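Title: [Solved] Class I SAM-dependent methyltransferase 3D structure

Original question kept below for reference.
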Amino acid sequence: MSTIHWTEARTTRSALWRSESATPPPARVVVADDRVKAATAHRLAREGTALLWRGDFHNARQLLHAMRRRIDRTAPRPAGGPAETFRLHRRARGHRARVLGRLLVLLEADYSLALRRAPDVRRACAEAYGPPPREPLAVSLTELLGVIGARQWREKGVDVPALGARVHPHYGVFSPVRGEYVDLVAQAPLPPRAGHGAGRRTAFDLGTGTGVLAAVLARRGFERVVATDISPRALCCARENVRRLGVAGRVEVAGPALFPEGRAGLVVCNPPWIPARPTSAVERGVYDPGSGMLTGFLNGLAAHLQPGAEGWLILSDIAEHLGLRTRRELLAMIEAAGLRVRGRIDTRPRHPRAGDTADPLHAARAAEVTSLWRLATA
Ligand SMILES: C[S@@+](CC[C@H](N)C(=O)[O-])C[C@H]1O[C@@H](n2cnc3c(N)ncnc32)[C@H](O)[C@@H]1O
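Solution (posted by the thread starter after getting help):
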């Protein structure tokens, strides 16, 4: 783990550095407290200087809001087509994350925060980061707020009507807040032969995240569901959720991997929907760089299907509305993988951002359709 250094009360100090987005440790760090003005903090952060917060915790949050407003005021207004709008939007988000990420807090060796009015973040940090490193640890306040938010979601859970239960996402694991795709998997007709004979009672859920779709498949009667993911956090989260949901006896969580060994009567995959580079671990459920997971799924599918089986690809067409992939390209990928489309079930997303006209990606989100593609070997 790398370190940061700063001078405080004429003493040089250091702490370990942690960043989920793999941001290198800032080279220049100054100590800041409640007296610092948003304009100064914004200027320093924009110039690459990190501010190590020593004031009141709530004031640090206020400062972050004020800095965010300043950054957003000066963000360029996209004027091109959808792909250009998306590119500029991501660039602006990246810039904002970098600048805001320079407001730092110091976690003590037991993950406590020695700041006035600070919440107890020890459990949230232990859940997100693992056992404390036994040395002070510097993190950005934005990252810490994400860790705190994740603890609340993990505790409260997300309601999944298709399961009649709550699913509890862990830090950095894709959360099923958009229920429309879960309903598709819960309601689509099963391939006629998926439920009969050895192997046909087996389903795979690739990239299981919280384990939500694996649990849906178990509830739909599959005797054995193998759920995989590339993320160790997701694997741990899925194990916990299937246990809570009472389907651990039928759901085997395996990986890190995309495909497990063998063949199944149904193979479900909900890859990240946008072919672009994620900037943090948290974004890995949303962005699939170079469509790597999508092509990995399509190209490996035929070799993992029982005769008569189906692969269900869950994919929204947002990438098409953003000008990042055409429908023709998607169909060509399916064909090149030796697959054919048996059918498609479409639904409209219900998430609130679809109605947010201030969102630069509003047009794409408003037009978005989520589909369950029923794929079979050609
Ligand atoms: C969009 S999320 C879907 C999660 C869950 N299936 C759901 O529907 O809520 C995509 C998941 O795929 C996982 N993933 C990404 N690339 C992967 C790969 N190459 N192999 C396996 N899993 C991958 C991510 O960690 C993430 O959990």
